[in-house]
What we know:
By secondary structure, the protein is an alpha/beta fold. Helix content is 33%, strand content 25%.
Amino acid sequence: MIRRKLKVIFVMLIMLSFLTACQPLTTKSLTVAGSTAFQPVVELAAAAYSQKAKVTVNVQGGGSGTGISQVEEGAIEIGNSDVFAAEKRGITVNRLRDYQVAVTGITPIVNPKTGINNISQRQLSDIFTGKIKNWRSIGGKNLKIIVINRSMGSGTRNNFEKWGLNGQRSMVAQEQSSTGTVRKIVAATPGAISYIAFPYVNSEVQALSIDGVAPTKKNVRNNNWRIWAYEHMYTLKRNNTAARSFINYMMSAAVQRKIIPKLGYIAVSSMKIKRSESGKVTHNINRSGGKIVGSHPDRP
């Protein structure tokens, strides 16, 4: 009797193993890494996409440079970046495919006690290059100016220097790798100034207008506010189906119209202009019809 039961159990185990082996895999894996500024958007989108497509999307940070280099090496499928791959040394750009998924504005911020909420382009450059040292010099309080930079290699810093300082390098000063830390230091330090992406601005810091132009999404969309950056998703030119499918989802209405605006970013589909890595701006007069009319150089 016992021997008969053992035979039945053995047969059932064999059948179960056979059925399991014949079942197709329902879960695939995809790794996305790079820009920490864009990471919250990708994480939220990945969570929704994973449930829908039965694909495990592993989202990691590491910075724009890491994302671009790792995707070129084939270590990951998608690399997120706040900067064009051509701006990173050692990258073979023609091996990569660039998908511009979103846009983020970048604004200078100060401690509210400075007494300043508007600044000229020239004054901004002079502050970050060390020529202006006290807020009183430009109509603010008698406070020493304390510059806080993002770390070298930061996409936010690269774009701020390129578009906010007209290509000049910021002076040697305290550097921080985290946007949250930068905001915290500026909020707690009278006289401090730095720069962060729009989604991270809160009531603890004062965002500065430049030459009377406010740092708003509306002004970014028409390029009246020039300090902004594309959020790129890079793949190898010969990418796989899983990578293409996830990027297609990132360009869908579910992400462009809901997730991206919800987190304070700008949908690339809502931009009225396009800007190349060299700074050439193309105005999209009739976006719905796809007609692109006119262009002019807008270089730092």
